[in-house]
Amino acid sequence: MQLIKKHSNLGLAYFLLVGTMGVFLRLFYIFPVPATYKFVVHAHSHVALLGWVYIALITLIYCLHFFEVKKSALYKRIIWFTNICIMGMLLSFPVQGYALFSIIFSTLFLIASYFLTWFFFKNIPEKRKKMLSWRCIKASLWYMIFSSIGPWAVGGIMATLGKATVWYKIAIYFYLHFQYNAWFIMALIGILFFIVEKSGLTIDRKKFKMFFLLLNLGVILSFFLSVLWIKPPVIYYILAGTGAILQLVAFLYFFRIIQKIWPDLKMIFSPIVQYLSKLCGILLIVKIGFQLISALPYFANLAFLYQDFVIGYLHWTFLGVVSLSLLAFLEHFKLIKLNWLILTLYHIGFIFSEILIFYKGMSLWLRWPRFAEQPLLLVFISALVPLAVGILLIRNYYPKSKV
């Protein structure tokens, strides 16, 4: 358990770095900063996805299914190598962007993730293979590997066609889509279903089968939402819209499954975890709504013209749906200790920064009035998120602290 708690704290440390870099990026809009904005963005995004979310997810997966497997030494070696790769990206991207060392560390990280997936598939206890939660987690790991086609393709595209081609952006969107909408979401659902199954609650298998099938079809087809900005033939809009609708129907099945067992889950979850579960459900519904709207040609073009809408959506998913779900699960398994002060700071930082980001996009689109203090206000509001994570990290390292 001590190993798992250390890895949880490590994930939080990456989250703190991500939040701090996010605040630093806001400063570029206020005064000259002696750094390259694009390079810092690369570091910020890589540490966000591959540091905080990746480490937190694999820590939870190991805690759930592999804690009794007596091969922790191999797992630790893979994790150490993974963290060397993450630190290499953290140090190299701000200095050189996509160049020799950052590409080397990114490539090594992908290889490390393949080894970790192999470790999970090889060592999963036989009794766990039939669990519905493992089906979700297994699918999420396959999606993680599938998403890596994007980074591999980026190297070839840069060497042959260059960054200016649409294929460069499509490769990046391919990676982001299957990270955000498949690997992350499916793994989180698997963790939730594990709690349900280990608590002796019954999941309606017919509803689960429909949910699982529709979600996988929806995830694959909704990738085409990521290419509508190039104004492709009508068939791509149809495929994208079908994918978005399939995801909507899939989550209707999901919420019906949860609704049936929610009274029992309330007895298992603490008040904080109950609250976060409800909030994440609401945020997930809004996320699905965003995807549905973006299937319409007008709004697909709007997202391309005003990048603030895309940034707002990504932050909604990352800071909202994914990060709050991870915090809830880490709290449930007693790997971290949340309190209402930390959540209040986090919520204020998350909600009001989203309002400011979307307002900027709306002001450009609808010619709403803009105020000069917006960039500075966004800095202070955004700083509340790393402040909350920092307090949480200190409380985890020093449980008796009164911070």
From TrEMBL:
Keyword ATP-binding: no
Keyword Membrane applies: yes
Residue stretches in coiled coil: none
Segments passing through the bilayer: 12-31, 43-67, 74-93, 99-121, 141-161, 173-196, 208-229, 235-255, 275-293, 313-333, 340-359, 379-398
Keywords per UniProt: Membrane, Transmembrane, Transmembrane helix
The name this protein goes by in its record: Membrane protein
The species this protein was found in: Christiangramia forsetii (strain DSM 17595 / CGMCC 1.15422 / KT0803) (Gramella forsetii)
